[in-house]
Structure formats: structure tokens, C-alpha cells
């Protein structure tokens, strides 16, 4: 695990965008794993800027979302499919049919999860997975207690996560209780993982997953076992590292 401390989210976004730009130049059909939430936004902003200003192109790229709420109707502005379109893929030239996400509206969720795993495999696996980290150490929506070998499945959100995500909704009652998320085993299959975190609110989670024991109590700690994990954080998020 390589940990890089940078002055601000802008530099973090730029460095992650450099890595993605290199990948897409070398491998135009690259498969990107796409996170939502606030953390990846500086990456998506920078990629959109490079697309507009220097022609960085994603025409053959495929994107696979990490997770999705269960219970939000298709097209809901806070569904992660919509967030990814709005924040990233609609701002660049990714083909809409190349953007995939777990189906939180399926009547047979288990079958949809299996189909999602198969779709990732059929695309050749994820070349670069963008990740944020929850204040409780989750990645994707693999909350504490998740199996380190888990695959895409339905999960119940922790109270802490619903509180953290209430800012995207009018009030906490609107935050769904359930999600479909790639598992920790699914995330570990990505060839390169780039996790970004900023701010003091992430400092404890960063300390726990970088320096603590590998444990289901802190799901992001599984990344200590990943052969190519890059952690990009600011000073505030790094403050509790020894
Ligand atoms: C989002 C996701 C979550 C977030 C995490 C941090 O797709 O999988 O793990 O990355 O909850 O969220 P932010 O970035 O909003 O602090």
C-alpha cells in the first residue's frame, strides 16, 4: 500500500487524473471502477477539464459503479447511476451503454448481483478502481463486519453511513436503508485501486485501515493485502498516522 500525502483535494484529484489519463492512453478500452460520494468529485472535475481542454477521450472506456441504493426509483437524482452520469460520464465522451451499475430496482436482487459480477468479468475485470472511504472504514458499502471475501450483494447501511449521507437528501428519513454493493473480494480483484480521502473527519478511518490490523471491523484494511493500492490523502486525513 502506497500512501501519498498532498496539500489539498485539488492536487489529489490531479494526481489521480494523471494515473487515469496514463491508463486510458495505454489502454483505450480500460475498465474503470467508479465511486460516488464527495471524495471522487475532484477527480471527475479534473478528467472533465482535460476532456474539454486537451481532448482526453474515453470513447472505448467502460465504467462500473461500486454501489447503488435499493429503493430509489430509476432516475432518482441521488441514485448512484444518476450521480455518476451527472458528475462524470455525461461530462466526457464515455458511451452511455458502457456505463454499468448494480441494479437496486431488480425484483430478484441476488440474480442481479450475480449478473453484475459476470458483467465485470466479461469486460475483462476492473483496471483501476476509484474509492472513497467511509468514516467507519467502509469501502463501497461494505460496512464493518463485511466478509473480506464478499462479492456483490445487498447490504444494510450502518446508522453512521445514513447520517453521513443525509446531506445528499432533504432529511435522513429519505436515505435508503439498503444498498447493493460490490463486495470486498470484488474490489480486491481490481488490478489497481486508488483511494482518496480528505479532511479531519476521515483521519481515524485512515489510521485504522493504513496502520491497524486487517479486520472486517475496518473493511478498508483489506487493501493492505492488495498488490497495487494507492492511497491519496490530505494532511488533515493523514493527521492520525504515526
Ligand atoms: C460511494 C461509496 C462510499 C463512499 C464513502 C465516502 O460509491 O462507495 O464508500 O466512497 O461513503 O463518501 P464521501 O466521499 O462522500 O465522504
TrEMBL record:
The entry's keywords:
Allosteric enzyme, Carbohydrate metabolism, Hydrolase
- Which InterPro entries is this protein grouped with? Glc/Gal-6P_isomerase, Glucosamine6P_isomerase, Glucosamine6P_isomerase_CS, NagB/RpiA_transferase-like
- CDD domains in the cross-refs: GlcN6P_deaminase (cd01399)
Is 4Fe-4S tagged as a keyword?
no
In which pathway does this enzyme or protein participate?
A: Amino-sugar metabolism; N-acetylneuraminate degradation; D-fructose 6-phosphate from N-acetylneuraminate: step 5/5
Q: Where is this site: Part of the allosteric site?
A: 146, 153, 155-156
Q: Catalytic site residues?
A: 67, 136, 138, 143
Q: What is this protein called?
A: Glucosamine-6-phosphate deaminase
Quote the cellular component terms of the Gene Ontology held in the record: cytoplasm
Give the EC number(s) under which this enzyme is classified: 3.5.99.6
Q: What does this protein do?
A: Catalyzes the reversible isomerization-deamination of glucosamine 6-phosphate (GlcN6P) to form fructose 6-phosphate (Fru6P) and ammonium ion.
Query: What does the record give under GO molecular function?
Result: glucosamine-6-phosphate deaminase activity; identical protein binding
Q: How might one describe the regulation of this protein's activity?
A: Allosterically activated by N-acetylglucosamine 6-phosphate (GlcNAc6P).
Q: Does the keyword Hydrolase apply?
A: yes
Which species? Answer: Arthrobacter wenxiniae
Give the Glucosamine/galactosamine-6-phosphate isomerase domain ranges: 12-224
The record's Gene Ontology biological-process terms are: carbohydrate metabolic process; glucosamine catabolic process; N-acetylglucosamine catabolic process; N-acetylneuraminate catabolic process
